[in-house]
Design a protein that fits this description.
This protein is of the alpha/beta class and 377 residues long. It folds into two domains: 250 residues, Alpha-Beta Barrel (TIM Barrel); 71 residues. The chain is 41% helix and 20% strand. The protein contains 14 helices and 15 strands. The strands form three sheets. The chain has a nine-stranded mixed β-sheet with strand order 7-8-6-5-4-3-2-1-9, sandwiched between helices. The chain has a three-stranded antiparallel β-sheet with strand order 10-11-12, with no helix packed on it. The chain has a three-stranded antiparallel β-sheet with strand order 13-15-14. A hairpin with a 2-residue loop joins strand 14 and strand 15. It binds S-adenosylmethionine and iron/sulfur cluster.
Length: 377
């Protein structure tokens, strides 16, 4: 099994908080699918010819790409590999790009899952974030996706906004659950260097939300998601039974994936490769048939740490016997030694051979996992 990620690096307008790689819209959009086609033919052997189980169009803003272009890319993938009959094919979409025609086109191309970047159902918050849509458009986009053949709908929300409260967060969450969505990704606002918000925070023009409010909002997320039948399966991801993102799960399980497009990462079990964070460099590499990729062969310690980091962010945790089969005993023992005090306080549990962070402690799991990461022999 393998996965494919396609990074669509265009945004009409940069949101104030976002540091995902993207450039503005231009005539580059029309030639982009042809470049992806060429990149695929140049890099196809990076993953073995095994069935493609998940395909993910992420961004940037994939919904700026028309359905015939998405269809073209999917056709190229189908000619290169075998796509599983029940493959999960996801596209990220911005609410204000969505139309009935676009959605129907995506469905006809084989896209069967849509992830809509709502962020909030409150107009003031959307303005603050620099989004292009308002709360009404957010709600309408979900309805429109449902009317036009999408059943498997995910939405993104951001919490921990300055001046937000349990009430405001509860409002957005309740609205989300009322729309009969199947999957929810909730991210705490982070202030990234190089973004407008990053600069405003440094210049003290924005104040971070109080930690106690962040914690209350996280607890509310757990409470309301439980009430609405959602499984909190990873720090930022929740879903109804049967709707967990197979693409995300594949990443966490270390399944090989090929990433196409500028800034996309790839992994084949041994090597990690990444495309430049520059459209022009990426394009020149493809045109000259000499792709400019950086790569890293993962050593044992890095692989061990990555496995811990990805698995401990999920409800399944990490199976100790898997670690023992894959890595030297000394590494596993060193990690288990560091885990002891955290097991005592309940921040970690060891049940039936699985080490995990209980979901109620997901919010502080980065700190917990940080204590287990191996730095030297
Ligand atoms: C690739 S981005 C956006 C996809 C799509 N272009 C959109 O804006 O709707 C995926 C998600 O990451 C989240 N995100 C991006 N930057 C963030 C930040 N600094 N803090 C918290 N969440 C962030 C947002 O929820 C966003 O929808
Ligand atoms: S959040 Fe989405 S639309 Fe906004 S800048 Fe980031 S990728 Fe672009």
């Amino acid at each position: 099994m393998a996965s494919i990620y396609i990074h669509v690096p265009f945004c009409k307008k940069k949101c104030l908080y976002c540091d995902f790689y993207s450039i503005g819209t231009s005539n580059k959009i029309s030639q982009y699918p042809l470049l992806i086609e060429k990149e695929l033919s140049l890099r196809k052997s990076f993953i073995k010819n095994e069935p493609i189980d998940t395909i993910y169009f992420g961004g940037g803003t994939p919904s700026l790409i028309g359905s015939s272009q998405i269809n073209h890319i999917l056709d190229c993938i189908a000619k290169t590999y075998t796509i599983s009959v029940d493959a999960e094919i996801t596209i990220e979409a911005n609410p204000d790009d969505i139309s009935a025609e676009l959605l129907q086109g995506y469905r006809l191309s084989g896209v069967n899952r849509i992830s809509i970047g709502i962020q909030s159902f409150i107009d003031d918050e959307l303005r603050f974030l620099g989004r292009r849509h308002n709360a009404q458009a957010a709600e309408q986009s979900v309805n429109l996706a449902q009317k036009n053949g999408f059943e498997n709908i995910s939405i993104d929300l951001i919490y921990g906004l300055p001046n937000s409260s349990s009430d405001s967060w509860g409002y957005s969450l309740n609205k989300a659950f009322s729309l009969n969505i199947k999957h929810l990704s909730c991210y705490h606002l982070t202030y990234e260097e190089g973004t407008v918000f990053g600069r405003r925070l440094k210049g003290k023009k924005i104040q971070e939300v109080d930690e106690s409010i962040s914690t209350q909002q996280f607890d509310l997320l757990r409470e309301l998601s439980k009430k609405n039948g959602f499984i909190h399966y990873e720090i930022s991801n929740l879903a109804m039974e049967g709707y967990l993102s197979r693409h995300n799960c594949a990443y966490w399980q270390g399944i090989p994936y090929l990433g196409l497009g500028p800034a996309a990462h790839s992994y084949n079990g041994l090597v990690r490769e990444w495309n430049p964070n520059s459209y022009n460099e990426w394009e020149q590499g493809i045109q000259s048939e000499n792709t400019v990729l950086q790569s890293e062969v993962l050593d044992e310690r890095t692989k061990f740490n990555e496995k811990l980091l990805t698995h401990l962010r999920t409800i399944w945790g990490v199976k100790i016997s898997d670690l023992q089969n894959e890595f030297r005993e000394v590494l596993v023992n060193q990690m288990l030694f560091c885990a002891k005090p955290l097991l005592k306080t309940g921040r970690l549990t060891l049940i039936n051979g699985y080490l995990s962070v209980p979901p109620e402690h997901f919010f502080t799991s980065d700190g917990t996992i940080g204590n287990l990461i191996l730095v030297e022999d």
